[in-house]
Amino acid sequence: MHHPPDTLHARKRRKARAMIVSAAFQLFAEHGFDNVTVAAIAERAEVGRTTFFRYFGDKQQVLFADEEVEADRMCAHIGERAPRPLGDDLCTAVDLLRDADAATRPHTALSPAHSAVLARLLRESSDLRSRYLLTRQRRAARLAGALVEAGAAENVAVLAANTAMACELTAMRLADNPEAFPVRLDETYGLLRTIGGKTVS
Q1: Which among 72, 74, 93 is positioned nearest to 82, based on CA atoms?
Q2: CB 136 within 8 A of CB 168
Q3: In angstroms, what CA-CA distances link 127 with 25, 114, 131, 133, 135?
Q4: 145 to 93, 97, 170, 195: CA distances (angstroms)
Q5: What are phi and psi of 116, to 5 degrees?
Q6: Mean per-residue pLDDT for 138-147?
Q7: Domain-by-domain residue ranges, the chain?
Q8: What is the C-alpha separation between 43 and 59, in angstroms, rounded?
Q9: How many whole angstroms from its chain centre is CA 37?
Q10: If we measure between CA atoms, which residue out of 154, 151, 145 comes closest to residue 75?
């Protein structure tokens, strides 16, 4: 039996974690990613290094702080909303992932200011781009698993999850600021619809 989520302890933990994320993004914005140490982040957040490492394995992880929570929520959404069985319906699988993303993003998305910092850091650092792509691939693997659990054929599940990832990466590349991202994402998914458009239905 775990604590109800809003014990004083849980609130203090959330606050400490939020302070660390906020301090890290401020420092990254001021100095760039490479020039900021964990010690500097801890100092700005007014916590000890030990506290930092209780929440994050390294400073890269701070940038992708809500990755696990987002993936959990998306998988839960798929589990709840998937028409059974999905079978080999690729279009429905992709639509389901898009819906899961739309339902999850408002709850877990970085603030526009933090998104802008992350976008800049990704442009500046190939190490961070590698780490970012790894988080995307891990998420795609988890989403494919959720689709298979919902009855999708494995090839359809994997292709749908990687297609959703490709749409996200495309929208990121084309959006010149975080506010433009959702519009570009819609356009990208719209473009996908044209793939089968030349056949007579």
Answers
A1: 93
A2: yes
A3: 17, 19, 6, 10, 13
A4: 12, 12, 23, 25
A5: -65, -40
A6: 97
A7: 8-62, 66-192
A8: 13
A9: 24
A10: 145
**What integer best gives the mean pLDDT of the chain?**
91
Encode pLDDT of 87-106 as tens digits. Answer: 999 999 999 999 999 999 88
- DSSP per position, 89-123: -HHHHHHHHHHHHHHHHHHHPPPHHHHHHHHHHHH
Q: Looking at the domain 8-62, which fold is it?
A: Arc Repressor Mutant, subunit A (1.10.10)
Q: What is the dihedral of CA 30, 36, 38, 44, to 10 degrees?
A: -30
pLDDT at 84 (0 to 100): 83
Two tokens at 9? 């302890």
Over residues 58-84, the mean pLDDT reads 92
What is the pLDDT confidence band of residue 197, given thresholds at 50, 70 and 90?
A: low
pLDDT band at residue 2 under the 50/70/90 scheme: low
